[in-house]
Amino acid sequence: MLYENFENLPEEKKKRIIGACMEEFARNGYDKASTNNMVKKAGISKGAIFHYFGNKKNLYLYILDYIISYMTKRLYNIIGTPSTDVFERIMNTGLAKIRLAYEEPLMYEVLYMAFISTPEELKEEIQRRYNKIYAENVPAFIENIDMSRFRKDINPAKALETIILLIDALTNKYINIYRNKSANEVLMEIDKMVEEYREYFEILKKGLYSY
Amino acid sequence: MLYENFENLPEEKKKRIIGACMEEFARNGYDKASTNNMVKKAGISKGAIFHYFGNKKNLYLYILDYIISYMTKRLYNIIGTPSTDVFERIMNTGLAKIRLAYEEPLMYEVLYMAFISTPEELKEEIQRRYNKIYAENVPAFIENIDMSRFRKDINPAKALETIILLIDALTNKYINIYRNKSANEVLMEIDKMVEEYREYFEILKKGLYSY
Amino acid sequence: MLYENFENLPEEKKKRIIGACMEEFARNGYDKASTNNMVKKAGISKGAIFHYFGNKKNLYLYILDYIISYMTKRLYNIIGTPSTDVFERIMNTGLAKIRLAYEEPLMYEVLYMAFISTPEELKEEIQRRYNKIYAENVPAFIENIDMSRFRKDINPAKALETIILLIDALTNKYINIYRNKSANEVLMEIDKMVEEYREYFEILKKGLYSY
Amino acid sequence: MLYENFENLPEEKKKRIIGACMEEFARNGYDKASTNNMVKKAGISKGAIFHYFGNKKNLYLYILDYIISYMTKRLYNIIGTPSTDVFERIMNTGLAKIRLAYEEPLMYEVLYMAFISTPEELKEEIQRRYNKIYAENVPAFIENIDMSRFRKDINPAKALETIILLIDALTNKYINIYRNKSANEVLMEIDKMVEEYREYFEILKKGLYSY
DNA sequence: GATGAATGAGGGTTCATTCAT
DNA sequence: AATGAATGAACCCTCATTCAT
After folding, report:
1. How confident is the model at residue D49 (pLDDT cuts 50, 70, 90)?
2. What is the DSSP string of B66-134?
3. Torsion angle, CA of D22/D64/D168/C106, rounded to 10 degrees?
4. Which of A175, A161, A165, A167 is nearest to A196 (CA)?
5. In angstroms, rounded to a whole number, what is the distance separating the alpha carbons of residues D63 and D130?
6. Which DSSP letter does residue C153 get?
7. How far apart are the first and last CA of chain A?
8. In this predicted structure, what is the pLDDT of residue B186?
9. To the nearest whole angstrom, how far is the Cα of D11 from the nearest Cα of chain C?
10. Is the CB of A46 under 7 A from strand E?
11. Which range among A173-182, C17-26, C71-80, D29-38 shows the weakest confidence by mean pLDDT?
């Protein structure tokens, strides 16, 4: 088993270590994150972390995988049964991402930086993870989606991509705008976001639907 | 004059130094970029670079300004006289960005990382530059744009934002997809991109235009 | 515990390191003292010294405190039970300082320079130490001193200060004159110094005592 | 001629250069004084200063000699015709030193530090100057001094030294106490100093004079 | 004579990783 | 298994001095 030295630890200790490392990576990025700070915050010895993970790179990838796994599960959890309406489904995914970004700001930060500003030595491994997420989630995302209302002269894949690109852009815009506000503030404004999403939907629907 | 020690150098030497620094910054980001590597590659002494720029931060900002200045000029140069048609104008800007990203991959990399993953100590200065670019270019970008064909029941600003969000997303997608291909390969596929842009335009036009 | 990384070292190693650092500080002063030379002479790695003390400033203050602590103890040790006669007590203190300056020339040099030519960044910390030494030692120095023989028309504080100023000046003169001689040579001349001190005492006594 | 490159400069320029260097040495000491700052403040080129003085050490010694020469002359100037009374003469010298320390604080600072915390590489040269000053001034200082009132059973040299040691200690104490006050403030308190000097004189006179 | 660009050794400091205990 | 002291290469930066112009 990979990382078995770590996995065999009591759950409570694992949580403490993961939390400490995550916070350090979130605050400082991969390069500037200090293993010293991690072990201090986690209350373990310097050697331990290398005993568990071998080196900083592996540690980072472990944390990243942990986050991906947690975030994916939690995302499905928030979304619940996906709407069959294509716009609703995509919007709900976007809203869930926003919610998650504020529920777990440290995780979001690590994840965001992993895919955006990747240290050279991690590029390959991170790309592999990106591909995996893509392969595992996109098919399910598209499944059972009702595209019957799309105009017949439009490639449905293209239609879908149009919606996704726009909604993603909006979602990221929201997350960035609200970045420094508290989760509470953000959650209270979700209704306004939904309204705005729907304004864009009206435009797209006129372009994509046949009436 | 700021950086006059550097500016007075022979053009050839300046180019060599800028190139070496740019490459190092592009490959490693601000923090991990090594002034040692820069001077080695540029063939100058350790002290020289500090004689020219004072410190690493100034050096970085000089390179960044150089890139911004070059890229802005070149972008206008590629775009030429902007179309009055809103879709054409935005697409042409996107295509110019793509072209530029492949003409000058190092510059693009540095620029991209500057605005995306900013080292704490540079945040303020970079934000200042971002605001300046925005203030200097957005008004001209919107000027003389023909919005007469937008449906009367749509907020033109929202319409414009819809187009921009979608086109930007597409543009970034293209740049990322083709990231590891040669400039030549990319430039040869531009016609296909144009075609694809236009497919999205058809969808948006149906949503935004009154016929 | 402050400096616990260092304090936990075996006594022999601590001595070696303290000696090496002390010598470097004594020879070159705070600013020009090179941590490189220190580690080389102490036979430890570059990182070690920062592991132990954090930075050069802390290292210096540690050494300084070590010296103050040692010198104070040793001074009391040499002096023994202080004479109640005011002249004898002050002279004995002076002689003890002279003895100490030759017993531990490196310590004396560091101490002397610390209070005489203080690097700006250390001023506050050194002043704090000076005040502490003053507060802890001056009261005991004055305690149980027999001033009954001073003439009644003289302010005893002024009388005391006269003696101290003169004796201190003499003491420093001796230390400077003999600076480059061996401790042995100096110790052999102490009898002559005592004699000279006493010549000055005769003068002062005529001025201060009532007969 | 030594430093002839410098000596042939127009007087005004020499003054400017001396002033700039003196200030830098006074503020930072020999080691930390930056030749860069000197040439900047003096408005000359980097090369010039080495052309004039060869190296930093020579420059420092030139400045030091300049100060010694100026201070000595000015001291005699302030003192005027020396009193024949031994106490008055020594006190007047002390008062003149105090006055000079406030008239020319930069010069005093350089001079003070030169003799107190001497960089290793300058020790010999500075000692040579110290000896020269001593040899040139002490004889004149003693000349025509009226020692007739000293008690016959006292070695006059010892008596003189007693006075000098005490007065010097007092003088230095005053200079240090008033170090951060303005020249004006200090000059206004000179009367109080004179009074205090005289209190000590009364004590010494009782010890030294025969009545 | 005068310039100031260029040098490069050396400065203090950081940090992931190792390894004897 | 767990520790944490020790390592040493690499970091950015400073500076008196030189020398081609």
Report:
1. very high
2. HHHHHHHHHHHHHH-SPPSBHHHHHHHHHHHHHHHHHHSHHHHHHHHHHHHS--GGGHHHHHHHHHHHH
3. 100
4. A167
5. 15
6. T
7. 57
8. 83
9. 33
10. yes
11. A173-182
Q: Is the pLDDT of residue C67 over 90?
A: yes
Residue with the two structure tokens 């006669």: C85
Beta bridge partners, B146, equal B85
- Strand E bases near protein CB (under 7 Å) are 1-20
Chains in contact with B, where contact means 3 or more Cβ–Cβ distances below 8 Å, are: A
Fold of A55-208: Tetracycline Repressor; domain 2 (1.10.357)
pLDDT at D14: 95
Residues of chain A with CATH 1.10.357: 55-208
Q: Of how many residues is chain D composed?
A: 211
* DSSP letter for each residue of C85-148: BHHHHHHHHHHHHHHHHHH-HHHHHHHHHHHHS--GGGHHHHHHHHHHHHHHHHHHHHTT-B-T
Q: Does D165 touch chain C (CB under 8 A)?
A: yes
pTM of this prediction? 0.90
Helix (H) or strand (E) run with residue D57 in it = helix D56-79
Residues pairing with D150 in the sheet: D209
Is residue B55 classed as helix, strand or coil in its secondary structure? coil
Comparison of pLDDT for C178 and B75, the residue scoring more = B75
Q: What is the mean pLDDT of each run of 10 residues along chain A (211 residues)?
A: 88 95 93 92 93 94 96 94 90 93 93 84 90 90 87 87 91 86 84 91 88 74
Calpha distance A210→B207 (Å, rounded):
11
Query: From the list A155, A166, A173, which residue is nearest B162 (CB)?
Result: A166
> Which residue minimizes Cα–C1' distance to F4?
A46
Q: State how far the Cα of D31 lies from the Cα of D115, in Å rounded to an integer.
A: 15
Q: For residue C157, what is the nearest residue in chain D, using CA coordinates?
A: D200
D45 touches strand F (CB under 7 A): no
- Per the CB < 8 A criterion, the answer to whether C91 and C167 are in contact is yes
Topology, domain A1-54 = Arc Repressor Mutant, subunit A (1.10.10)
Side chain identity at residue C99, one-letter code: R
Closest CA to C144 of C98, C85, C199, C75: C85
Answer whether residue C1 shows pLDDT above 80: no
Q: Could you give the residue range(s) of every CATH 1.10.10.60 domain in chain D?
A: 1-54
Q: What integer pLDDT is reported at residue C185 of this predicted model?
A: 85
